[in-house]
Amino acid sequence: MTDSKYFTTTKKGEIFELKAELNSDKKEKKKEAVKKVIASMTVGKDVSALFPDVVNCMQTDNLELKKLVYLYLMNYAKSQPDMAIMAVNTFVKDCEDLNPLIRALAVRTMGCIRVDKITEYLCEPLRKCLKDEDPYVRKTAAVCVAKLHDINAQLVEDQGFLDTLKDLISDSNPMVVANAVAALSEIAESHPNSNLLDLNPQTINKLLTALNECTEWGQIFILDCLASYLPRDDRESQSICERVTPRLSHANSAVVLSAVKVLMKFMEMLPKDLDYYGTLLKKLAPPLVTLLSAEPELQYVALRNINLIVQKRPEILKHEMKVFFVKYNDPIYVKLEKLDIMIRLASQANIAQVLAELKEYATEVDVDFVRKAVRAIGRCAIKVEQSAERCVSTLLDLIQTKVNYVVQEAIVVIKDIFRKYPNKYESVIATLCENLDSLDEPEARAAMIWIVGEYAERIDNADELLESFLEGFHDESTQVQLQLLTAIVKLFLKKPTETQELVQQVLSLATQDSDNPDLRDRGYIYWRLLSTDPVAAKEVVLAEKPLISEETDLIEPTLLEELICHIGTLASVYHKPPSAFVEGSRGVQHKRLPPRAGSGESTESPDVGQSGPSEAPPAVIPSQGDLLGDLLNLDLAPPTATVPSVQPSMQMGAMDLLGGGLDSLMGAGLGAAPAAMPASLGGAPAVGGGLGDLFDLGGGVGMPTGSYVAPKTVWLLAMKAKGLEISGTFARRGGIIQMDLSLTNKAMSVMTDFAIQFNRNSFGLAPAGPLQVLTPLSPNQTIDVSLPLSTSGPVMKMEPLNNLQVIYPPTK
């Protein structure tokens, strides 16, 4: 008879009967009673009243009975801590038993009983087990240290268990090594700065030796530990890769992904011209392909990881396109992931078979999958320029099917193709317009409106088409309303005489009848542009648009590097760093790939004072606030002012763009507004070094008498300050910081009554006296002025640190 009899419905008075049976002299009856207790506990019945009677059963040589009693102890020790102390003596005794299985069972149970009162009693038995002659006991004790550390970290450190755990990495038994690595890794996660896993070439060699003989989970622990090691050079990196590569053929998918993670990290250090690099790329493909023959759930996890690998190194799977073709019985989540990877691998060499496959998918019955397939065709056109014409032709064939959702998706992607290849495929617009009435989804309607507005000069009845959308303006979604407003303004600028009434109607609807602030604000901006300067409006609204990028959904490079370091974990499935979804007090370390071979990057922090040419700063898209200020000022050109060049020891941040934005934004409503001038602090590197010396905060000790003065640069453009152009630099004379200014009047009238004000800044800089401009500033005249500064002003940390905002109130 099976053990299922113990789970039958219990009857009244059973606790009393069990109590009697537990105290029976017959071993078999006692074992049966403990089984009944465990069965009751499993189904959720409270049998804690039997705690003393069950603990008394610990004194037995029967291994099966001892396991059952320990199971009961682990479950109820927390609710009965005082009673649990009764079991301490038995634990100590069992840790010295002749049978290694009993010794290991005792130490495992000790780690699972999370009661503070008895942890200190368990230290001595644990210490003995960590040095036990039997490897099974040692490997169990290693995991127990991690569990005990979770309960009382200070106790584990005081007792020296962490040092013993580190010694176990050199153990002769591979399973002991694997468990020691697992325990240290677990502890290191909760203490990111502890440096417990102090890896060196000798330790790495021991781990690689143990790797071949471990169980599959032991191999995963060791591989994950290897992934956190930074090799000294490419030779060591290659050596580790050679010894890890055999793990790619393991039957367990988790071992394969952990090995892939190690190889992906260490490949960064291998020169690309190395023969072994090419060999390694070829070896990585087969195991990844094999993962796709598993059950759907494992396939999905593998595909999410492959998605990351393909973004980092598409050459690994560039010849394996066919394995990502969708099967009819694939679940939808596997289909969509395969589709995404197909697009990432698409190239001129395989685009023909990819397009044929995608066209087939577009006739499937699954609506979501069909939509993705149609979008994928558009992404192929954008990614592989040579295939664009074939893609457009395929999309037109799909539009002819007249299947509503296919037509709508096709129109959305054709809009993107127009953006990528302007003035190339506009001949299809007539076909698109035929399907105007069938569009009912906001995104498709917005795309069609954009096409009509953008190419209004090529569409004879563009005004009628847009007017048909305008009839139900208030019923449209915000996306469609915004697109319709812009399209009609474009149409008006292209055909002003025919569409004046239409543009007035849409501006009235957007500004007077709408509650949406985005729509209302855009309407007011267009209204102001059109009423004040139609030429400027044309330059703004009909400006040439930048081409859209090939891949719009690529993961940001820094995040991708971190996710590659987490291959085989939840982070690689979510495509989010662990810090985004792991909560709690445990610190989450941000990992990154090692520096590339030949990149010249150093793993140590660079010397700040190092000389050499600095790289040009990357172009940054201006923030929305700056764009708004420029738009209201009818000036979309970026500021041409340059910041003073500085030495590497004084790295300066980006210029504060408040000047132009504030002047233009406020100038509309107020006759005159202050113009904020950003000024970067440039100067010679001090002999004493540091920012403090630059501003003489240390009393000027060590300063050279003839300090270098950076040349003046334009700090404020005339167009931003009503005709006043200001150039300047900083200098120190006689131990006093001076701001040297050149004021140029580019307006038509005389300027007088100059004043200056400093905002709070990181260094407490403030004028030491008023700005002395002795004569009126005539048109086209330039005056040089020197303003002494003090460092006793109000201090506020700025971002960046050297940002200084200076206000010039309006002049007369």
TrEMBL record:
Membrane topology: Peripheral membrane protein
Domain of life: Eukaryota
Keywords: Acetylation, Membrane, Protein transport, Transport
Chief location: membrane
Record-level Gene Ontology MF annotations: clathrin binding
GO cellular component: endomembrane system; membrane coat
Descriptive protein name: AP complex subunit beta
